[in-house]
Amino acid sequence: MRDLIIRTFVLLFAIAMIAAIFVKSDNHSSAMNFNADNNPLLAKWEGPYGGVPPFDRVQIPLFKPALEAAMAEQLAEVQKIANNPAAPDFENTIAALEQTGQSLDRVGTLYGVWGATMNSPEFQVVQREMAPRLAAFNDQITQNEALFKRIETVYNSPAKAKLKSEQQRVTWLYYTNFVRAGARLDANAKKRLSEINQQLAGLYTKFSQNVLAEETDQFIVLKSEDELAGLPQSLRDAAAAAAETKKQPGTWVIMNTRSSIDPFLTYSDRRDLREKAWRMFVNRGDNGGEHDNNAIITEILQLRAERAKLLGYPTHAHWRLENAMAKTPEKAMELMEAVWKPAVARVHEEVADMQALADKEGAKITIEPWDYRYYMEKVRKAKFDLDQNEVKPYLQLEKLREGIFWVAGELFNFNFSPVTNVPVAHPDIRVWEVTDKTTKKHIGLWYFDPYARAGKRSGAWMNAYRTQERVNGEITTIVSNNANFVKGKPGEPVLISWDDATTMFHEFGHALHGLNSNVTYPSVSGTTVARDYVEFPSQLMEHWLSTPEVLQRFALHYQTGKPIPQELVDKIKRTSTFNQGFATVEYLSAALVDMKLHLAGAQKIDPDAFERETLAQLGMPKEIVMRHRLPHFLHIFSSDSYSAGYYSYLWSDVLTADAFGAFVEGKGPYDRAVAERLRKYIFSVGNTVDPAEGYRAFRGRDSKIDALMKKRGFSPKT
Ligand SMILES: [Zn+2]
After folding, report:
1. How far is the CA of 5 from the centre of ligand 1 (A)?
2. Distance 649 CA to ligand 1 centre (A)
3. Could you tell me if 303 and 200 are in contact, meaning their C-beta atoms sit under 8 angstroms apart?
4. pLDDT-based confidence at 36, cuts 50/70/90?
């Protein structure tokens, strides 16, 4: 539950914007000298490794004309296929479609990178204008009747049975995606559908803007030592640096973002300030006024319900889950409910532990949501004698990067070597070439953009700049990992937390999923798998951080160079199920509300009331708030992608926990035979096989929930 995995097309619609500028984007400048023939954003990628993204040639005014030209080009390509006088077959229809839109893929990659990591008011103007137009463009393709007829003919043709299994799967995917996008509707319904999609694209943009505005405009200024009580030095330094950017010299600023708020709630001794910070954070988008998202949510939900009905589904949730691994909302709910009760029971135990400690200290308080992280940390120290700050000196960013490279070498025979001859979007970004250790064959490129900066969205994620495929030639992949670590002073190592190190392994898991891809058709390549399956490879990789092989080699003290002491490792291990009640309930409450919201149908929903009533019915512990309250739940309201899909992290984690068991039952985490099965059936196949079948081939059976319950320390019988 660390990130959104981002692919180009999700990005086109999902990227948040900061300023609410409604100016039309006719931005004249040197870009006026470019047309579709010489716009560098449209050009074939040049340079080594089959060409690399021209990050050095991006100018914001080039985006709009490039996107327009690329969309026009793809429409023309698609029309040519639709008009083909030859009888439809796989090659002249499906394979031909797989070769369209290459210019848009290239521009879209750059556009996505700028949206997520190089954003600016000038760029936001372009996003605002282009979001609905890109939505309309997608509909123009899926609503092309002649094209759909051809796809349908190939899909229903007896010749399909003779195709290779990957080709059959791609055909099925095209057919299903077109039907699901309304290809079978009559002209009026299609028109309404396209209106809805454009309206939604605008609302998603506005929703994201509002959240970002409240995260940017609201902050807490601390003015005295007294107000800093309890905060470790690293946090004080970060708050002082934030004060500089907020033009509040001589003070300390706590920003309204998770990376700033969570540590403050963990360490601040000032209960009044913890409450203030907590209230600010959980009310983003819910404060009335111009950035309030409640009315937007009501509108989004109504449009989604109308669209689902139009497409012939009972609800938006049924539409979204049809092609997911879960298949139905009921299956997803069943899993969530199985975990919910034991997780809530654990929360009550955790709260009892915290209350006892507070009573013993004579605090004379009842545990409230703003006390949870603070007392949790105290209980961790009291019960396990583990101070998170003791671990940090052993977790150097660059050493851990070497650690993940080493793991990739052991599991997948990959070698990473640094590359300096390719352009990057920002000087902090570095690039490595990935090759096979034995054959030296080129596999792909890995871009690493580790540091926070203005214009870069928060969190951590993976992105594919180019997917592996063979239909347009032997194309190798280009992937990136992105994070928001605070850049250290020159020459000083960047130290990160255990959680952040886990996230690094997670995102690298997505990258490895892309790098291992070995398919023919781009639309089933790498990480283009079902939403509730895609977090499986990434969550699985988290397990390798705590292996002794990694810790002894790479968790080295930044001053002494000595490996992390076994005693500390043992303590970390003993705490592996600590606080899982909180983590599970915080996440699962949001996932349950997401699903129930999208099962509610066309009724007019008041988000505040719905959230409150649903949580009451669920028996939500009063000491915890949903990880994302509805007015800022970007996963489900900044695009369709994770809507009725936030359960995916839990669904994937069932597979993750169960899959790691295959290593444990074998020769351990570095068992070559199990790793080879993992590569063969999971990491290399993309979306060429049904995920349940792929999993069965790897494990020899279906997944079971037991390993997940054990991993989180829950008894399944509770
Ligand atoms: Zn992920």
Report:
1. 5
2. 8
3. yes
4. low
